[in-house]
Amino acid sequence: MDEKTKTPLLRLAKRSSFPKPAAWAIRVGSILFALLLGCVAILLTGNSPFKAYATMINGALGSKVYLQQTVKKAVPLLGCALAIAPCFKMRFWNIGAEGQITAGALAATFVARTFTGKLPSLPLLLLMAAGAILGGGLWALIPAFFKAKWNTNETLFTLMMNYIIIGVVAWLQAGPWEAQQGRIAQFDASAQLPKVLGVHCGWIIVLVLVLLVHIYMRHTKQGYEIAVIGDSMRTAQYAGMNVGRIMMRTMFLSGAISGLVGFIIAAGANHTLAKEIAGGVGFTSITVAWLSQLNAFAMIAISMMLGILTKGADTLQTAMSVPAAISDIIIGLLLFCMLGCEFFINYRLILRKKTGKGGAAV
Amino acid sequence: MNALDTVILLLLAAITYGTPLLYGTLGEILTEKSGNLNLGVEGILFMGGAFGLGGVYYLEKFAGTPSGLVAILVALLCAFLAGAAASLIFCFLTTTLRANQNVTGLALAIFGTGVGQFAGEMMRVRAGSYVTVSNELKDFFIASPFPQFLKDIPYLGQLIFGNSWFFYLGVVLAIGMHLFLKKTRKGLYLRAVGENPGTADSAGINVTRYKYLATVIGGGISAIGGVVYIVTTAGCTWNNEGLSGVGWLAVALVIFCLWRPLSALWGSVLFGALMILYMRLQLSFVPTELYKILPYVVTVIVLIISSLRNNKEKQPPASLGLAYFREDR
Lengths: 362, 329
Fold this sequence. Notes:
The complex is a heterodimer of chains A (362) and B (329). Chain A contains 13 helices and 6 strands. Chain A is mostly helical. The model of chain A is unreliable at 356-362 (pLDDT under 50). In chain B, helix 2 packs antiparallel against helix 3 (68-96), helix 8 runs antiparallel to helix 13 (261-280) and helix 12 crosses helix 13 (261-280). Helices cover 73% and strands 0% of the residues of chain B. Chain B has a single domain (19-328), classed as ABC transporter involved in vitamin B12 uptake, BtuC (Orthogonal Bundle), CATH 1.10.3470.
């Protein structure tokens, strides 16, 4: 070692505070940067990025019908992101929303098949929703139970539960519940969600959920417990919280909301059950939850943004034959940039000073 | 056909379907040994599959049919580079920019799946039809490197000498990785980084460099699994859904194998068997669709059992999934 201690070219220091507007400016900047990176993929297809983005925006917002379709895509994303938020706040990596949606839709379909014709529309729909809440919640409770009891890896457990329940639906679809050609019969009109402003009323349900989840997370004792566990498991234990019980409770709640989303998709959008019912919503909504910093209100904007992206990508595929997978690429880039930009919000880069003799010691 | 033949056929198919898992798992073991939990294996496999197939396809299109070994090398190299690039993003975000490993891994899974499907679709659109390679190459990819007389040994001949190049390469890789981790100084350093980066750092080991190298090389190895899947089991054609779930099984297999490369050998064959059992061993009382979820059910059971045992030897690297910041020490 030299006698002189070397100061590195770049040093890091944690920021003690950072003005909120500036932090959001960095975040918006990183979104723009991600969209810029998305241009590269579009350029590879031989199209002009401006034209492509214009096509996407026009295809998503250009007319009333398009806007309705975009909202239809954003509704499950928003609902499911609300479901994931409490788990992620608790640092419980629930990536099984896809399966919890499917389980909820499965339960709702079961109720619909059993009680159609025996109940009027409103009680039937309420019963279907209750079934979906229970179905999704119980499906989520299984991995939570093992996590609480034996610390079983929840990431993989919840993930595997997706494939299992999707397999069960595939079996029902091709076997016991088959109506024709491997499909389950359409729901009766009494088991379909009514439309408000041209879109099924699921959008009202999720907007109410935004408010409820916000209050639950910020203004209740249970929400506070979740935050404490997320910050430090040991603190929570030391404070006398029953961590296992809180985990199971939170996961049930999360699965229940996902299940309700499954009900909304089945009774509102598709009017039937199929194994593709979740269609990746469970994964994409993780992005929504994280990009919004688990803030329920920010999720409305982010889910709309991703709704525009996915609907726009569909239009892009038909109009300019750009593969619809472009939306996954842009969503991935968005996440990368948003994850990366937090670093610049939390840390300060300090360049080595030119004059320094030995420099400032750390 | 007698029972023994059935078992041998089943095992051969299990090895074929297990080989992609073997690469995926080996790569992830190397990554996790450095303390990085890269959940993006699913996306990495998609990228490896699309770029590996693309490499061979365009090589054949522009330079004529290459010899089999050249084609294999190109496929491996393209897949490796794609996986390494994807893992570099992961490592940059988690190690340098200190992002959360779980979320970054999930982002990589979404991104990689998108890139793989995008590239596969683009190739299809450009070609105007299905992207595939010549029959010569297809045959070579699933042929065994050993001479016929070895394969003619009764019963064991096919089983031991009748598998594809990729399988034997995977075996060599697994043994090599085992020796590297257990018998070399660099391997020891890598394990130290994964167990306790603070201590490793104090001992003068460059933690960042080890994390980067292990993650990038590990991601490259995982990606090879993608192209192996495409060329050995999917008939060298790109299919948007074909690979889905394989990467996640590989992540689960890492836990099943207790982070040991040698256990990955039989673990991957076992999971390969679970994946194809519904085709080979039909049971009249189990519907096919339910039979297909067997690997996932078994994975869940494995997860539960491995969480039940409380053995110090059988634990993940101690700092797995945790970020290391020298300043926070």
